[in-house]
């Protein structure tokens, strides 16, 4: 074997060794393992739910440890912070962009009740509560169209007033047509500085769900009590759906002043108190 062949043989061996080393390293290198996907969960806000109900649902889903965790961000339901000389929590980012149009008139003495638009939201199970709230408020901002904003300005109504009225209408009736009729009745009562006399506003304070509140509860000293204090309550009593918001913004004009629901949920309207009392006697007794 001559020198030339020996050199070729040695070079071939060296190449094989190098390829073997690279091959071994390639097939035994640490493989990239993508992180496991973050688990997600659906949260659904039911039309009319208040912050108590939202907090309970979020606790069940493990999004918050207790009610206080949510209330520290958005305030406590049915609480008049001004009466105790303090202010409700404030989310400063609500004062930016078009979102500010919906929040600019919210007073500092009440919670963010009324702004949690009822829908189903997909979130990560480890999402921070404030980030969930940002998502919900962002959806609300997108659902309120430019036409609706223009209409609110035309009527010289603030969004806080609209959400407050819509929250009452949401709790009083469920049918969209009835919502529009009742919204018109309530707006006219409000304009006249009449007592709205909504049982739902009193239930919001007591935590009850009585279709007809007691005489004792009617005397409850709270600015949410629309039997004792005329006009709108201190703030929203729940979180209204877009259907209720539209009903309040575009009510159906009528000449009724009273309404009631029978045991089957059918609505009965009256133009006079006497006619209303006859409806009550006929359908509820």
What does this molecule look like?
The chain is 47% helix and 6% strand. Helix 7 (159-172) packs across helix 8 and helix 8 (176-191) packs across helix 11. It contains twelve helices and four strands; from the N terminus they run αβαααβαααααααββα. It starts with a helix and ends with a helix. The chain has one domain.
Helix residue percentage = 40-55%
Oligomeric state = single chain
Largest sheet descriptor: 2 strands, antiparallel
Rg from Cα: 30 Å
Keywords:
285 residues; mainly alpha; two-stranded antiparallel sheet; two-stranded antiparallel ribbon
Short description:
The chain has 285 residues and is mostly helical. The chain is built from 12 helices and 4 strands, in the order αβαααβαααααααββα. It has one domain.
Topology overview:
Blueprint: H1 3-27, E1 40-44, H2 51-60, H3 67-74, H4 99-103, E2 120-124, H5 129-143, H6 146-154, H7 159-172, H8 176-191, H9 199-206, H10 215-218, H11 242-249, E3 258-261, E4 267-270, H12 273-284
Helix pairs in contact: 7-8, 7-11, 8-11
